[in-house]
Specification:
Blueprint lengths: L3 E6 L4 H11 L4 E11 L4 E2 L6 H11 L3 E6 L5 H16 L5 E3 L6 H13 L3 E3 L7 H10 L3 E7 L15 H6 L13 E7 L9 E9 L2 E8 L17
Parallel strand pairs: 1-2, 1-5, 2-4, 5-6
Antiparallel strand pairs: 2-3, 7-8, 7-10, 9-10
Amino acid sequence: MDRERILLSWSSGKDSAWALKVLRADSRFEVCGLLTTVNQKFQRVAMHGVRESLLQAQAASVGLPLFSVPLPQPCSNAIYEQRMGQALKKIRLQGISGIAFGDLFLEEVRAYRERQLAASGFRSFFPLWGLDTPELAWEMIGQGLRAILTCVDPRFCPKEMVGRDFNAQFLEDLSAEVDPCGENGEFHTFAYGGPCFSRPIFLERGRIVERDGFVFHDLLPGPEVGGAPIKGVEVKDS
């Protein structure tokens, strides 16, 4: 039986990385690439605030091509749908028939994705859908997924959390009102190592800035120590 050729919607965060792990273990699918949107003006992943160079480093580490859709700043929903529709037409020509997402439980988000993809002739898949988020968060950490908080919404998550590693101590410090996976938008992450990565992404810390009601921690590509990977991530203050 031929496997279905799909792309994975890639935000650069932990849920995307975990979805890739799950999909690669599923004999029904062949993940052929990562689909993402990038702010043209700032050359960063929207909401996560991650630099495009780090996005490319992730793609290289997981061994998949990056299908990047540039978006203007600001970007209306109509422009977003137009740009994405154009990209999907090109993707369809490569024999790709579906897109997978790392969404967990937001019904309205899933319904929107399904409508938009169906209109372009694509199937949609949600390999993490309905999983218990506290259990999932601990499983991610237990199996070695490494991620750092790049953005927090201070209305729901203390701004001091930005820049922290997504680890056991972080989960223990999190209030009960915050979803452990940040599924309600409380926080966003950048995945830099773990089961789906062939080698860790080396990082340096940049500035912490507040913009448009959110708090962002900038991350920059960091030098590799001795030209070889090290355990975890090399993080330096700058």
